[in-house]
Amino acid sequence: MMYALLTGYTCLAVSLAAMAVVMIVNGDPDASVGLAVGFGLFALVFVTLAATLYRPLLHQGVSEPLQR
Q: Which residues, 6+ apart, have CB-to-CB distance to 25 below 8 Å?
């Protein structure tokens, strides 16, 4: 359950940051640089947290040979 929620929030954060940047680039009157930076930091935190959480699952360590 934790992996699904974190993945969902990470995708939400990245999409909000991208939307804020696109709004600024397109000259939207409701765009705010502060919100874009805030959502960018929010996205960075969640991407880092997700990478840290998923790292043990994706780590392919070198297994030691069998001892006989």
A: none
